[in-house]
Amino acid sequence: MLRVHQWLRRSFLSAFALLILLQVSLLSLGTGLVLKRYSANQLAYLEKLALQIIKNPAELSVQTPQHAGPFFVFSADKNLLYSNRGKGRSIPEADYRPVAYEGRVIGYFYAGEVRFLATESNRLFLASLSVLLAGSLLLSLGMALLFSLRAARRIEEPVVEIARDIHEIRGLRRVPRRSFALEELSRISANLNEVSELLAGEEEYKREWMQNIAHDLRTPISALRGQLEGMRDGVLAVSPERYEKNLAELSRLEEMSASITQLSRIEQLRKATKSSVAADQLISELLSPFEAAAEEKGITINSRRAVDRLEADPALLLRALRNILDNAIRYSQSGTSITISLEASAPGRAQISIANNGPSIPEEQLEKIFQRFYRGESSRTSTGTGLGLTIAREIARLHDGELTVHNINPTGVEFIFRL
Length: 419
Description:
Blueprint: H1 4-55, E1 72-75, E2 80-83, E3 97-101, E4 104-110, H2 120-170, H3 183-233, H4 240-268, E5 275-278, H5 279-287, H6 291-297, E6 300-305, E7 309-312, H7 314-331, E8 337-346, E9 349-356, H8 388-398, E10 402-407, E11 413-418
């Protein structure tokens, strides 16, 4: 398994080597084409010069051919007209090149092998060019190696830090938000910071939840144990009232167990299954379980409906609203009223508010009351599991909405369930 700097160096050098190979191949191909073009142009020049010599033999001394090799010009009957290398008697006639004029051959010329490298100056020029090219390639390779090492080191250090942060996150520890020269690595670090905060917060939340479960279970279990042991030892008299008290504690344990199970199921849902719910029917089903308790405390429940129908999961919505209404009745004083309002908050959205005239909630507790098993000091002596509002907020989330609470003047609390 390669480390970052090894992988980057190998990849960089492989890409550079491939680039050099491509450049050398293109240069070789281009040089070959240029040399061929040079030979073709030189032959065309010599043919044109031979034509002038054949047409005007008397003006041979006017122009000297720019050709380092042998150059012979012959007439149509292959008699020598011009030569820069003797009489050319050893030249095979098969190597003669024809010179045409107005569609007929009027003579011949011989120039030997016309090549760019035929002259010493051209050979020296091409050799110098090759040396410069090889030197530049070696220098480029050295610079590429140097820059690849520098780039690898520049990337390796942040990657090592990020890997260390990931290891810390596995231990559910928070990691700092780091800033690197590379923006993408800085974004990764920022995301890791958010994930670590979330996981660490969830771990603290889970730890607090377990402590609350242990506390809320310990109290009724200890009370039951004390009652049963007292009756067993004859310290406490066996009476119907004592049985009722123990049964109430068992009911509380059952309710807590049912609430935990329901919250777990709700948290596993991704989306509520919505349908059209009639507002009148929703209010009727919401109030029916609480009519006796409200009448017993002398509490009046008023309802206002500005919408006829809602889009929601009827069972989940009723569960959430009943949890809120149960709290409203429990903490309302005798002779007060509770108001339930259904209205449109925006096009395609609705909200349900439940307001009572009970005691206000301390500002620092307004968000805490939605935490699992959280129960304010004023509710420690009352019944309940501490999960009702947590369940209600989760149900609001499933409806793409929210559940909020605020105090109202002069006294009272209003819960707003937005769909």
